Structure formats: C-alpha cells, structure tokens
C-alpha cells in the first residue's frame, strides 16, 4: 500500500515536471499532486496507471534486455565509437535467436510506444496480489534484520565469541532450508490451492515471528527461523503460479519486473523501518521509565503485523482456483553442477562466474559479522546503527545493480568487472581498519554498490554466453551459486570472527587499537577480493588495448580509450567482420565495401588469412586438410604471422592514407578459434596478436552470429581443415565471439546472421553510417560555405 502510494506520488510529480516550467504554477501543481495522490483510489483501473504508461514509455531504456522482451518494431539505438544509430528489432526475430542483440541503449519510436502492451499493474487483481507480495517482501527483509539483531540481543551477556556464533547460526538457519528442502517443498506446494497456500504461509509466519519475543530463547529463535523459511518455500511457487494465472501473456515481462521489485526493492525500506522502530523504541524508553520493551522485540511485533497484513490482502483477493505448477525443481547442487559444466568450459566466463560469486560472498561476510562489528565490536553502535549498516548494504547493492551496465561506458566491460571486484576488496579492507561508524556505513554502501555493478556486468556477459543453456537456466545457476557462496561465507566468517574473539593492541603507552574477529574477517575478505579481482581481470581481458590505468583515466573523463597502437594518427576507419563458418562475413564485407565506395570513400577490402604474398602461402598451409594434427601453438603462430604481414603491408598503409579498411576476420578469430577452439590460453593468444599487430584494433567489429549447425550447412565445397572440426569446436568458437562482443559492447555490432542477407546488410549499413568520417574535409567545407548558392 505504502509502495503503491509512493509510486502514484512519483508519477504525478513526473507528469507535473514534464508538463510545466519551473515557477509558482509548478509549485502549486506539485502541492496538488500530493493531495490528488492521497485521493487516488488504488483499485481504480484508470488514470494513474495510464499516466504510468505515459511517463514510462516516453523515455525507456532497454539496457541488456533480450530482444524477445522488446515490442516488435522497437527502434533501438546502439552506441559505437561514440555514435548512435537506429536498428529495428525485426518482426521475424525469434526468442531463441536473440540473446545479446539488445545489449543496447534504446528509445522506442512512436510506433513502439503505441504498440506497447498495457502495464501489468493496470489489472486490478494483479495490483492487489502485487501489493500483498510487496508487503510480504518487506516482512521477509525485516525478519532478516530483526532476527539477526535478536540473536545478538539474546546472547549479549555471553561475550563476543558467543554473539558472533549466534548471529551466524540465524543466518545459516535462514539459508539452509532452501538448499536442503527446496525440491520437496515445491512439490508439496503443488498439491494445495495457491491462494490458501499463500495466505496460510503468511499466517504461519505471523505466528512464528510473534512467538520469538514471547518465548525469548535463542534455541526457539533458531527453530522459528527454520520454520519461517519452510513457510517461505511454500509461498514462493504458489505466488509465481498466481502471478501467471492473473497476468495475460503479453504483460508477463512487466509482471516479472514488478515481482523482482517486490522481492528485492523492499530490502532498503525494511532496513529503514527497522531503524525507525529502533530509534522510536529507544526514545520511548528514555521518555517513559515504565516502557521497557527492547527495540528488537518491537521490530518483531511490527514484522508480525506486516505478515498479517499480507495475509489479509490475499484473503480478499480472487485468484482462479488451482495449484502451483508441479514442475519438478532440480536440487541446488544439480543446478550448480549442470550450469558450471555448460558455462565454465570457457575461460573468460569461468573468470566472470568466480568473480561474481566472490562479490556475493564478500557481501555475505559483511552481513554475517555486521551485528558483532557494530554491537560489542569496535564501532560501539546499537540496533539503529545495525539497521543503518544493513540499509547501506541493500541500498548500495540496488544502486550498483541498476547502474551496472551504464557505469563508465567507455571502459571495456571486462575491465569494469575486474576493477569493481578489486574496489570491493579495497573498500572492505578500509572498513575493517577504520573505527568510525559513519565512515564504515559509507564504505559499506560503496562496496555493496561495486558488488552490484560486478554482478550486473557479469550477468549480461554470462547471459550472452548461455547459448542453448538458456536465460532462465543461467539465472537459476547463478542464483543457486550465489546461495552456496553466501552459505560458505557465513560458515567461514561467523566462526572465524568468534574464534578470533576480542583483541586490543597497544600501539603506544596511551594509544590502543581494537582488532576483533569481525575486523579480521573483513580484512581477510578484502584481501581475497583484491586477489580475485586481479585474477578475474586476467581471465576476462580477452584482447590488447590501452594500459589499464590510461584506459580507466580516459573512461573517468568520459572519453574513449586511447588506442595503444603504433600509429595513433591514422585518419581512416577500420572495420572487421567476424563470425563462425558460413555466417556470411565474405558476402557482407563485400556488400559493405561496395556501398562505401558508392558514397565516394577510398575502401580497401581485405581478408585473413591470405591477403599478402606470404599470407597466401600461409593460408594454403593452414587450411590444407592434409595438415591435420598441426599443433595448436604452430597454428596460432602462423595465423599471427599472416596478421603481422597483413597489418604492415595492407591495413596500416591504407589507414595512414585515410582509407576505410574492411577486413573479413581479424584478431577475434584467433581468440575464438585458437583460444577457445584449441583451448590455448586466451590471454597469451591476445598478447601474441597485440605484438604482431602493434596493438592495432578495429574501430568497429561486426559479429555475424549464426549457430554452427546452420553455418556449416551453407557450403557446397568440401570442408577445409578447420571447417572439418567437430560441432563442439565450432560451438566453443561461437561462444567466445559472443563473449568478446559482450565484454566491449561499444566496439561491436552483433547481427543475427540467420536473417535474410538484405536485412543483415541494412542493419550493418545503418550502424556504419553513424560512424563514418565526413567525406568532405573541413577545409573544403569552409571554402564551399562562402560560395554563393546555385539556384535553378
Ligand atoms: N543471410 C544469409 N542467409 C542465407 N545464406 C547466406 C546468408 N549470407 C550468406 N549466405 C550464404 O552462405 C554461404 C557462405 O557465405 P559467406 O561465404 O559469405 O560466409 P563466410 O562467413 O564468409 O564463410 P567462411 O567461414 O568461409 O568465411 C554463401 O553461399 C552465401 O550465399
Ligand atoms: C583469421 C583466422 C582464421 N581462422 C580460421 C577460420 C576459418 O576456418 C579459416 C579461414 O577461412 P575463411 O573461409 O577465410 O573464413 O581459418 C583461424 O582459425 N584463426 C584465425 O586467426
């Protein structure tokens, strides 16, 4: 309810801002906004939510959204080399062809705005369900904060060690039931009516949360937490099924986003609520000596009331009778092993996954020692301080996740990912060593934001690699992995903090420094994160480029990375076509060269291997099927030798005279075929090629993406040595191409090569048009500008 009122307020405010100029009228309208928002009946199906649509469709960003989630005909805008160009989502695009193509900033055109399906919240029953879900989400997060705080309060007299272990125990009791009992609970939920299951789970949660302050023992707290989690396991599948039954198919995407908002967006609100309750209770205690309630007990009463409110909402809601879907849920262990086997075959993806899970574990470690660090630990705060610290974690994460792919757009995604994890580590170490509550809260918020950025950047890159594993399964793999990482973090952090206990170091006769178990855990996690970040950076750095520090400095100033090449002063434009066998590179590079020449450009169309005299001989050696068994390293060296010759004799001279160079294959082919295909160390292949080319990188790489099962069937002639490799080899190659594109979206255009040839050409031309140099030099324009206009 509160969230819904806030949403209405915000929408009115936006409308007022969008339609008026600053000044007195706007101030009056803003005041009117508040009154109107209070009067807006929440069950009304009309104006406020239409306004929602109006405001949201005006400027929508579809960053990293799979194409299938976008309305047909949406006009997308992709940045490349600082330019923007429209690309239309083709009507024929099938969901299975699309991952990665919409890794783009977009603005829907007018037609898209017209066609956009109505928002899920325009449906009254769904709005009510969503209100119940949001209230429930608030309850879940508040219970996390309040129950961990209760563990600290109940063991306050037992010393630092006992308190650290007690808080860790509550966290484990919260995490383990889903791991051990997730599949049977989902099967059980499938047997009962979903509305009753949801309402029943809420009522059970109400009773359990209420029982904790009434019983008042640590043992019962742990039992109650386990039972609470079991109720949550029944609630979740029933809720998902209810959403699916209330929302028409075309609105499911927006319903899913709202579902996420209800589940995760309520975390900072819960932390804020806990702080307000703690402060109000402390105030009440100081004002009235007869009032002796503990802040944590009052927070739990509020928490119980929240679950009751959610149950009440559900009991008055009409959901078509039915059970939750009985689709068997694989165990967390199976989800992790299957996903890892599929995704981690690829070195950069392995680096991303390890980095992402490391970031989650670091946040988990902060949460597991936060209570002890604040309470009996060096920071000396109370319940309100604990709530503030967790609030900083939640807000920071939310901020980082929403900002993620838009952070430092000029920096390669691989570098941003590694640097975010290193920043998590540095901030953690600082939070471990500084004994000032305000500074620690700020550092914690910042490190959570960096962890959020790392997670969202990693997610889009891993998603692009998912291939036939699919988006849903990739997500469940990562969620299962995150849960496992959190459990490991709690299992290690809480006992380590407890065992190390409380220590005071005397620095000078009258200067002491406290260094407790929580400080040790934070410091160790910080150092581990720095190491992990450096390793991830090495794994995901697929190719050469400017030195990291220069690149970062330029990106912070909002500028493109400086090309680390021997001829930074090239006047031309360098475009490379990449892709698997039969994807259409030769066809499209020729068509592009013809189109560019038609516009008066000096164009050099070339290819690898074999565009020089020596190169032709190398091509013959490399592709001759008689040379089966050529060692992977020799192969890599021969391709790079061909490339060195190609750059020196053909590409660089052409660029220096200001020509446009279009090459069919370049460095990415070596990274994909020799790196991923032949399983050579991709950073070594990258270094070799950086040396061979003097660091020359294309301004734009057009990746024509086609499943090998299609591309390999497009040839009439017998397969050459590399085409003859098995299908899995070509699948690895395709995944690597896509990972390279996902790691630096600004430098790539990924086109679906299964589209008709003309459509592919049009998409490429639309994109290239935006980055073309001006065919008329500035000096000529200056002089022609002064000539009298010729009229007919
Ligand atoms: N979009 C398309 N749809 C269907 N067929 C296509 C498409 N583009 C190209 N082809 C056909 O596929 C075959 C291979 O095309 P092309 O030689 O351009 O691919 P390539 O990627 O350069 O192959 P290689 O891996 O040998 O470099 C040709 O017969 C071409 O006509
Ligand atoms: C540049 C480059 C190429 N390859 C492979 C990829 C293809 O199978 C052949 C080139 O044939 P095409 O018909 O010209 O596409 O060589 C490679 O393995 N590594 C490379 O660097």
Q: What would the keywords be for this entry?
A:
792 residues, alpha/beta, Growth Hormone, Chain: A, 4 domains, 5-stranded parallel beta sheet, 6% strand, disordered C terminus, binds adenosine-5'-triphosphate, binds ligand LXEULUCI, nucleotide biosynthesis, Thymidylate kinase
Strands of the widest sheet, in order across it, are 7-8-6-9-10
CATH level-1 class of the largest domain = Mainly Alpha
Q: What Rg, in angstroms, do the CA atoms define?
A: 29 Å
Helix content: 55-70%
Q: What's the total helix number?
A: 28
What ligands are attached or bound here? adenosine-5'-triphosphate, the ligand Cc1cn([C@H]2C[C@H](O)[C@@H](COP(=O)(O)O)O2)c(=O)[nH]c1=O
What composes the largest sheet? Answer: 5 strands, parallel
GO cellular component, one term: plasma membrane
Keywords: ATP-binding, Cell membrane, Kinase, Membrane, Nucleotide biosynthesis, Nucleotide-binding, Transferase, Transmembrane, Transmembrane helix, Transport
Organism: Sinosporangium album
GO molecular function, one term: ATP binding
């Amino acid at each position: 309810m509160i969230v819904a009122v806030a949403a209405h307020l915000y929408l009115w405010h936006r409308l007022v801002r969008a339609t008026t100029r600053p000044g007195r009228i706007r101030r009056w309208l803003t005041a009117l906004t508040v009154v109107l928002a209070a009067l807006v009946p929440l069950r009304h199906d009309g104006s406020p939510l239409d306004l929602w649509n109006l405001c949201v469709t005006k400027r929508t960003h579809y960053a990293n959204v799979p194409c299938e989630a976008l309305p047909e005909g949406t006009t997308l805008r992709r940045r490349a080399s600082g330019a923007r160009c429209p690309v239309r989502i083709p009507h024929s695009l099938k969901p299975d062809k699309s991952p990665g193509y919409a890794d783009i900033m977009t603005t829907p055109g007018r037609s898209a705005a017209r066609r956009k399906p109505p928002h899920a919240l325009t449906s009254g029953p769904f709005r009510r369900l969503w209100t119940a879900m949001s209230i429930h989400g608030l309850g879940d997060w508040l219970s996390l904060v309040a129950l961990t705080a209760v563990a600290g309060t109940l063991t306050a007299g037992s010393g630092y060690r006992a308190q650290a272990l007690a808080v860790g125990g509550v966290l484990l009791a919260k995490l383990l039931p889903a791991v051990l009992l997730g599949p049977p609970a989902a099967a059980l939920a499938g047997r009962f009516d979903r509305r009753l299951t949801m309402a029943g789970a809420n009522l059970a949660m109400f009773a359990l949360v209420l029982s904790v302050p009434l019983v008042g023992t640590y043992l019962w707290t742990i039992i109650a937490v386990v039972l609470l989690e079991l109720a949550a396991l029944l609630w979740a599948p029933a809720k998902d099924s209810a959403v699916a039954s209330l929302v028409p198919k075309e609105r499911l995407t927006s319903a899913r986003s709202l579902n996420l908002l209800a589940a995760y967006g309520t975390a900072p609100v819960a932390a804020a609520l806990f702080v307000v309750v703690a402060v109000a209770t402390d105030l009440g205690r100081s004002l009235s000596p007869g009032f002796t309630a503990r802040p944590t007990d009052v927070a739990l009463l509020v928490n119980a009331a929240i679950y009751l409110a959610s149950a009440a909402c559900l009991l008055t809601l009409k959901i078509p009778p039915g059970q939750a879907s009985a689709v068997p849920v694989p165990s967390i262990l199976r989800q992790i092993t299957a996903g890892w086997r599929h995704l981690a075959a690829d070195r950069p993806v392995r680096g991303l996954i390890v980095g992402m899970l490391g970031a989650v574990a670091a946040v988990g470690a902060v949460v597991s020692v936060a209570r002890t660090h604040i309470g009996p630990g060096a920071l000396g705060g109370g319940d309100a301080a604990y709530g503030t610290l967790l609030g900083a974690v939640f807000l920071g994460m939310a901020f980082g996740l929403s900002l993620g792919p838009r952070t430092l757009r000029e920096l390669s995604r691989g570098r941003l990912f590694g640097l975010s994890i290193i920043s998590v580590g540095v901030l953690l170490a600082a939070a471990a060593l500084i004994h000032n509550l305000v500074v620690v809260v700020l550092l914690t918020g910042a490190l959570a934001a960096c962890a959020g950025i790392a997670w969202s950047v990693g997610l889009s890159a891993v998603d692009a690699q998912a291939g036939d594993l699919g988006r849903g399964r990739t997500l469940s793999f990562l969620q299962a992995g995150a849960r496992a990482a959190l459990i490991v973090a709690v299992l290690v952090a809480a006992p380590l903090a407890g065992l190390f206990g409380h220590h005071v170091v005397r620095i000078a006769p009258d200067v002491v420094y406290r260094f407790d178990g929580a400080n040790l855990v934070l410091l160790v996690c910080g150092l581990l994160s720095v190491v992990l970040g450096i390793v991830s950076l090495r794994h995901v750095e697929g190719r050469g480029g400017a030195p990291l520090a220069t690149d970062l400095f330029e990106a912070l100033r909002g500028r493109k990375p400086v090309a680390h090449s021997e001829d930074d002063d090239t006047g031309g434009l360098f475009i490379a076509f990449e892709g698997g066998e039969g994807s259409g590179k030769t066809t499209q590079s020729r068509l592009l060269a013809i189109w560019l020449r038609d516009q008066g450009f000096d164009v050099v169309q070339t290819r690898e291997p074999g565009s020089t005299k020596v190169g032709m001989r190398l091509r013959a050696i490399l592709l001759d099927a008689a040379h089966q068994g050529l060692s992977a390293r020799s192969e890599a060296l021969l391709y790079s030798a061909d490339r060195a010759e190609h750059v020196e004799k053909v590409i660089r001279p052409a660029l220096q005279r200001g020509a446009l160079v279009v090459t069919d294959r370049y460095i990415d082919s070596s990274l994909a075929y020799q790196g991923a295909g032949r399983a050579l160390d991709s950073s070594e292949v990258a270094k070799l090629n950086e040396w061979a080319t003097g660091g020359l990188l294309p301004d734009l790489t057009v990746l024509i993406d086609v499943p090998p099962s299609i591309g390999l069937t497009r040839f009439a002639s017998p397969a050459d040595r590399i085409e003859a490799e098995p299908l899995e080899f070509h699948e690895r190659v395709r995944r690597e191409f896509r990972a390279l594109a996902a790691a630096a979206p600004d430098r790539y255009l990924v086109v679906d090569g299964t589209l008709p040839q003309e459509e592919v050409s049009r998409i490429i031309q639309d994109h290239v048009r935006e980055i073309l140099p001006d065919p008329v030099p500035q000096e000529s324009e200056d002089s022609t500008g002064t000539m009298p206009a010729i009229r007919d």
